[in-house]
Amino acid sequence: VKICYASDLHGHLHHYQALLALVQSEKIEAVLLGGDLLPHQERRDSGLREQIRFVQETFGPFASELRNHGIRFLGLILGNDDFAGALPEFQKLEKQGLFSLLRDSPVFLDSELAVFGYPFVPPTPFLLKDFEKRDRNTDTDFPQRRVFITEENGIREIDAKTFFETRSTIEQDLASWEMPSFPCKTICVMHSPPFGTFLDRLSNGQCAGSRAIMEFISRTQPWLTLHGHIHESPQVSGKYFQKIENTLSVNPGQRVDRFCAVVFDSTAIEKTIFHTVYD
Ligand SMILES: [Fe+2]
């Protein structure tokens, strides 16, 4: 299967158009998207409204167009810059069969490719916390005191410590995943990259990925893991993929000026993978 993976499109229309063009020129059959898909919002309630509108007016038609271009599988997760309040809009489109929201139980891309998804990232300096969780069970530090989250009747400000301590950790979540065994190939689309790799470097060179995700990869060794979140990492580290034991892990990064994505054939991934900007 010829697959295209990209992340962190942040609502940039030129990126969505570039993705459509790539799908046509490379004869892509399946598209995977790794979160932070909606326009970045500084404001709270109006920000959520703007993102919902983007899903309705832009993302839905984009997904239909992919279908018209012959894409038979579109799988996606949200990311920490997407409001959880936009999720019901995605679920409506998912019910129409336009794509699959990737979760902690597998969706089958074809008879041997099982795809999982995980949107949560460890605490960031940003205030919206819908898709943030403590990384490991022993973590007690949070970057802020007051943060905000989406609830049924809108956006609510909340104490960071109370919030983080009352939801599960990334480590706890991933401990319960049941991975299908050989001969099935497993793809995990996870917004956060694994910690301490070439895939999680900030512009100052520091690592900002998830330790729990790194442990999960080492323990379960999925066939392929696809990440995003840290846009600058491939530029800083000079690498967009890394072998972690038997797993190939990828973070194509993202830029505003040029659309970053990877394309590969699932029958020979390491031989066929290329990056739209860094190759
Ligand atoms: Fe992100």
Describe the structure.
By secondary structure, the chain is an alpha/beta fold. 28% of the residues lie in helices and 22% in strands. It has a six-stranded mixed β-sheet. A six-stranded mixed β-sheet has the order 5-6-9-10-12-11, covered by helices on one side. A hairpin with a 2-residue loop joins strand 11 and strand 12. The model has no long low-confidence stretch (mean pLDDT 96). The protein binds fe (ii) ion. Residues 36, 79-81, 191, 229 line the site of fe (ii) ion.
Question: Could you list some keywords that capture this structure?
Answer:
about 280 residues; alpha/beta; 6-stranded mixed beta sheet; about 20% strand; binds fe (ii) ion
Strand content: 15-25%
Helix content: 25-40%
Low-confidence stretches: none
**SSE pattern, N- to C-terminal:** EHEHEHEEEEEHHEHEHEEEHE
* Small-molecule binders: fe (ii) ion
Largest sheet: 6 strands, mixed
Brief summary:
The protein is α/β, with parallel strands linked by helices and 279 residues long. It has 8 helices and 14 strands.
Task: Chart the SSEs and their pairings.
Blueprint: E1 2-6, H1 13-25, E2 30-34, H2 45-68, E3 73-77, H3 87-95, E4 100-101, E5 107-110, E6 113-118, E7 146-151, E8 154-159, H4 160-165, H5 170-175, E9 185-190, H6 211-220, E10 224-226, H7 233-237, E11 241-244, E12 247-250, E13 262-265, H8 269-272, E14 274-275
The protein binds fe (ii) ion.
The site of fe (ii) ion (FE2) has 6 residues, from loops.
